[in-house]
Amino acid sequence: MQLEILPLSTPKNKIADESQLVFGKQFSDRMFVMEFDRGRGWHSARIQPYGPFSLEPAAMVLHYSQEIFEGLKAFRRADGAIALFRPKDNIARFNRSAKRMCMPEVDEQFFLDALLELIRLEADWVPRSAGTSLYIRPTMIASEPMLGVRPADQYLCYIILSPVGAYYKGGIAPVKIWISDHYVRAAHGGTGEAKTGGNYAASLMAAKEAAENGYDQVLWLDARQKKYVEEVGSMNMLFLYDGKIVTSPLNGTVLDGITRRSVLQLLVDRGYQIEERALSIDEVMEGAENGRLAEAFGTGTAVVISPVGSFCYKNRCVQIGNGKTGELTMKIYQELTDIQYGRQPDKYHWVMPV
Ligand code: COI
User: Most CB within 10 Å of its CB: which of 38, 105, 175, 314?
Assistant: First the structure.
């Protein structure tokens, strides 16, 4: 398949003061688009000006949520060059999500090449200030107009770009986490592991409950017993418990986070023992109170590393450590971002120059 580059007539104004960048509010000038028809496969791959699609009201994504997405970032490095972080891992996960949602897979090399071309064309949109990056959002939707419930025969796949600052307003500052004892995010056999919009839509009610109680995010427990820690929707959770790192296993209900994977590697190399095991909410609450749980933090592309200051579960609220960013959390944030921004050598080969 050929990649066509369509002309851009009116470039947008960029935000001059990068400290004003809000996560996911502004989009670059161009986007990548390709279309799929059963029988013909993927076709009409192009880079075109960013703008609205024309979609029939009967498009299947609007009714049955056949949709997947990804999140990765391009970083402006210390020497001014641009690099992506583990893009092949994101594209592979995009295809795993596609499979789960009965959607067509993409050619991984073609998709990566198209992404690199898009970033090269939009290089000026990669911000330069500390803590900023260009967030990349590959997406696929079922575009066929049809009201029967079955996998669609037509799809639209696209990549949009958004220059971003910190995901949370406070930057790397401890967040307050609400633990839902009523709502659940994912059950075994469900779609928890896939990066699909429905998982996020289903999380909104609990997030509203958390916000009404003054909390920032929701930590989900397993759907069967509502006992074991799973993830926070926008991030995987890691706990420094009795000096070891404890995190939920990837058993189908938790997203296989690429930042999670990277951070676990950094921790192993620092000599930490990793326990991928079921961690009960009782252990978390008691551990916070008796000090066995020294630090807790989330990992994700958008959030990078997000320290947890407190948990609240069934009206019992506990502080983690002194409620501030833990020492290990800070070191891992520094180490990971040093690799991403090219301040330290990348012995892991995670970074791909654009
Ligand atoms: C990401 O971290 O890239 C995500 O996709 C989480 C998103 C809900 C902001």
Answer: 175
Place of tokens 């037509």: 154
18 φψ region: left (φ > 0), alpha (ψ -120 to 50), beta (else): alpha
Question: Which atom of ligand 1 has the smallest separation from the CA of 257?
Answer: 2
219 and 333 share one domain = yes
pLDDT confidence of residue 167: 81
Q: How far is the centre of ligand 1, averaged over its atoms, from the C-alpha of 69 (Å)?
A: 9
Asked if residue 143 is part of any domain, the answer here is yes
Q: Using the atom order of ligand 1, give the atom closest to the CA of residue 23.
A: 9
**131 class by beta-carbon count within 10 Å (0-12 exposed, 13-18 middle, 19+ buried):** middle
- Running DSSP on this structure, what letter comes out for residue 106? P
- The residue to mutate among 69, 234, 255, 263, having the most atoms of ligand 1 within 8 angstroms of its beta carbon, is 234
Question: Could you say which of 164, 190, 207 is where a domain stops?
Answer: 164
Closest ligand 1 atom to residue 70 Cα is: 5
pLDDT, residue 171, reads 65
Task: Summarize pLDDT for 248-293 with one digit per residue, the tens.
Answer: 999 999 999 999 999 999 999 999 999 999 999 999 999 999 999 9
Q: What letter does residue 212 receive in the DSSP assignment?
A: H
Instruction: Quote the pLDDT of residue 169.
Output: 67
Q: Is 350 part of a structural domain of the chain?
A: no
Residues in contact with ligand 1 by the CB-under-6-Å rule are 71, 234, 300-302
